[in-house]
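Students often ask why we bother predicting the structure of a whole assembly rather than each chain alone. The short answer is interfaces. A chain on its own may look different once its partners are present, and contacts between molecules only exist in the joint model. In this exercise we take two input lines together and write out one structure for the complete complex. Read the inputs first and try to guess which parts will touch.
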Amino acid sequence: MIDLKLLQKDFEGLSTSLMRKGVSETLLNDLKEKNETLKIAKAAFEELQAIRNAMSKEFGVYKREGKDINELKARIEANNVKVDAALEVQREAQIDLETLAMTVPNMPDDSVPDGADENENIEMKKVLTPKAFDFKPKEHWELAEENGWIDFERGAKLSGSRFSVSYDMGAKLERALINFMLDFNAKRGYHEVSVPHMVNRTALEGTGQLPKFENDLYKIEGQDMFMIPTGEVPLTNLFQGEIIPYEQLPIKMTGYTSCYRKEAGAAGRDTRGMIRQHQFHKVELVCITKSETSDTIFNEMIECASDILTALELPHRLMQLCTGDLGFGAAKTVDIEVWLPGQDQYREISSISNTRDFQARRAKIRYKDKETKKNTFVNTLNGSSLAVGRTLVAIMENNQNADGSIDIPEVLKPYLNMGA
RNA sequence: GGAUCUUUGGCAGAGUUGGUCGAAUGCACCGGUCUUGAAAACCGGCGAGGGUUACACCUCCCAGAGUUCGAAUCUCUGAGGGUCCA
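Now the answer. The structure tokens for the assembled complex follow.
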């Protein structure tokens, strides 16, 4: 949620910033107006309420002193009619404003470049050089099926398209990658956390998936529960509604979860293979911190994810997302894209975002600031480190040999009982 | 699934014959006295959100609805937690 106080204090700055993210001027004016309406409605209600409180107090005194109550009672009742009406007005104004405000995305950082879509993202750097093949590298689904690692047909039989089944080394590699990534992150100071894969509505509102993106989520029938689209949701919401002791910050967490996405808007894209599945494994990083240190931590997270790829000897590049490609809650995002020789292109394998206090404001995650002594919203950051399925894809495509066999990265061998 | 108990400020924990309760007390925290310094001791402050130049004032004792002139306190529903039963 954006800071509604900015509507009064710095409407200019707020709208300039949000318009970069494609929010219309009409909507912003509407928002401002609704905020005004609420303010007025609130003042009216509070005044009447103050009268009621005073008269009720008086009522108690009258009773104790045995005075006649009838006249006062009539006055109170008359006032109460007004109170009820004013409350109703205030309520409507409140809901009006909130409904709208919850759909407004976060403001991008000033440093984020303008741009319409992913084509205008900016490459920050490349790590490792793609190796040259003396044969035409295959795409991962071909390799996966040849090696008997992944079975897309039976996945479809069980659950439909965009599901797959892994066997033998395919399955083992998934497991090895998860463990390797968790251990790697832990060495960088992230505490391992294991969380539920189903969460309630409040959690999803906290991180910004709801109310706007309900169509992308799998909902549990008959309950107000959803399958998580990313581990970011439970990890961040662990602290929902809490005031975190100052000394505990920053909180650095890593966790493995499956992720469940309808991929509603992705019809026709990546229909083959395991690039875009309804269910996929991911190891996530989430940090909760003060605003002063959130940039530092942001960079550490990027480095961590990038270093995992380096350890796996996978060429990749860092992309700074432009305003048009920035997600709903993000103030700033860096994507890591891994080289896929079979596809002859870089593909996203990690996305690291700083949401500043956008999620914190929604989820009410605060800490008491040492200097100002005020309860202050934390900054929350999240990032994949890494998407497991896509890492497996990258290993297959980068490590393939002419005969279709695939070399196992050295760092994974201990996890596969293969010795180093 | 049934029964029963429970849900209070950062934490712990009072507060059920409805009003003077936004709420005792302890811990934690902040400021001070003392001390070479620290600890202890003592004194003072200390829930949150909105509002105001500052006050006033409003809201919040899990959530929602109700009873009442008035609810943390009574009733109902829901959610979370405990215990017993199935």
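Check your guess against this: Residues 39, 42-43, 45-47, 49-50, 52-53, 55-61, 63-64, 69, 72-73, 75-77, 79-80, 200, 242-245, 368, 373, 375 of chain A lie near RNA strand B (CB under 10 Å from a C1').
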